[in-house]
Amino acid sequence: MVRKLWRQFPQVQKELTQLQPYLLKVITLPNQRIHVKITQLLSAGGKLLRPGFFYLFSEFGDEHDDDRLRAGAASLELLHVATLIHDDVIDRSPLRRGVKTIQTEYGSRNAIYAGDYLFTAYFNEVLKASSDPAVLKLQINSMREILTGELDQMDLNYRFNVSEGEYLNEITGKTAVLFWLSCHQGAAIAGASEAVATLAGQIGLTIGRAYQIMDDILDYDGDEKATRKPVLEDLKSGVYSLPLILALQQSPKVFKPLLKKKQDMTDADVLEVQRLVIENKGVELAKARATEFTEQALDLISSLPDVPVKQDIDRLTRWLLTRNQ
């Protein structure tokens, strides 16, 4: 099911509605249990932001080959879901998109293999979208940056002195690079000029940073029913995101006794950390950073060629800053 947010972008909604059955068709795992879990995850109503931005930026080109564009959009969602499955193993997440994770039902080994399988499906769709060696090199480099971002996160776990710069480097690899790839490749595969594709990538990178900061804010300030994942599920695993990093800088002494418990933190401890982060302006300060990146993205968007889709990109970017899920 395509999310309601796409109703205000009818052309993209149409493309995404056609993309979902296509995604299910390219998953051909003989292991039925894992096949069912992957198709559940793909059908569970993710926001499809990366394919959505891909299609929006494809409007800046004039080479609209439906099959190539669909394969390009599919590759992005498959890569995204593969990283989510691996994330769930690392973070021991019980739920993803409102359903039990693969690692919860079938163990971490099966989940890792499932994520690896989706990497192969991703590369298969990349080849359908373009056989240009330059495009393949770009995809490989992007995937390397994404995986490096995941490794960087693990190096930062349980550290009380994580800087804002280290956090931004980590989320750039973990999240923003895939937004960069989505926007750049949407423009490039559709035949947009190199200048427009480069600008699209810069916009995507900046949007990706703002998006991840907002995602981390929702862990502290969000509704579990809206986000469809347990609030603050990463905290016990030592993942300290921007709201906590900024609050720690304000009042380190109040947090350290709780955070030193690591995996032994109780639910009451987690709720106390949440309260302290809000009390020490961690959420407020993080929202200011997200606003800064959003404004940078909007500034870059204003430099795009004046075509109708430019206003849609502006509108979607503004929505990301005010979302609650």
TrEMBL record:
SUPFAM superfamilies: Terpenoid synthases (SSF48576)
One GO biological process term: isoprenoid biosynthetic process
One Pfam family linked to the record: polyprenyl_synt
Record bears the keyword Metal-binding: yes
Cofactors that this protein relies on: Mg(2+)
Matching InterPro entries: Isoprenoid_synthase_dom_sf, Polyprenyl_synt, Polyprenyl_synt_CS
Keyword terms, alphabetized: Magnesium, Metal-binding, Transferase
MF annotations from Gene Ontology: metal ion binding; prenyltransferase activity
Organism superkingdom: Bacteria
Similarity-based family: Belongs to the FPP/GGPP synthase family.
Protein name: Geranylgeranyl pyrophosphate synthase
Species of origin: Secundilactobacillus paracollinoides
